[in-house]
Amino acid sequence: MEMLPFLLAPFAASLILTGIHAYLGVHVVERGVIFVDLALAQIAALGATMAILVGINPHAGAAYWISLGFTFLGAAIFSLARMRRAHIPQEAFIGIAYAVASAAAILAMSKATGETEHLKDMLVGNILMVSRKEVILTALLYGAVGLFHYIFRKNFLLISIDPKAAEAKGISIRLWDFLFYASFGFVVTSSVAIAGVLLVFCYLIVPSVGAMLFADRIGPRLAIGWTMGTLVSALGVYLSVVLDLPTGATIVCTFGGVLVLMFVVHVFLHHGRQPAEVEASGSAAVGQVRGGRR
User: Fold this and answer.
1) What domain range includes position 36?
2) Computed from CA positions of residues 53, 55, 59, 64, in that sequence, does the dihedral angle turn out positive or negative?
3) Out of 84, 85, 89, 170, which residue is the most buried by the measure of CB atoms under 10 Å away?
4) Is 106 part of a structural domain of the chain?
């Protein structure tokens, strides 16, 4: 009970991250651009590094807007990389962007040695030290992004699930791709500063993958993803405090362990249904043969 007030802000932050990232993860998995989160996060870090290199305080608002500007540039590149008849997968462009942004950040950091610790914190994150003010500001920002996606949910979902049908309806694929990646950039730029790249990646991908094991429709997937993210966040934050472990890494490992358990349950249920389904289909086939003989 003594730890409860201390854990309240980190847990609230994890719930906010779960809410927006589990939804965006559905789009990312459907689009097959699994590493877009890492790429945009690294591009945002490159923007922050450049801001420091020109003498801007890393905690100032200008550094955030420069980082966000770099993220928008990445969003434009990714939206243009999605072509109708592409011989090169979009994921290849995303991987190249991640590698180049990482190398450029290393080169910039070599010239801004005094602020490398801050950049390390940005990449690794420490959700346990998040403040109430950061939680409120993040909730407002993510609420605006969520409202934007809710209003235009039909376009976003159609482009992610069936881009050919979207194009047939006259929807501009590149425009809505850019809007998706730009709104995604808003989320990533803020999330990485709070939780770090690895934890943000887990919030984006793991709940969606876990949900896909048990549901095919978007609604049930979101429900399972949000439930999983909430429970894993609470367990991970608690274990990090009790065991005196880094919070982000603890939550990431907890996500991995829970996903393995979910996969085992999925395999058990799948193999449990399979004999019954085979027997039922076999009986139906026998009935059809007998009926034909009659």
Assistant:
1) 4-206
2) negative
3) 89
4) yes
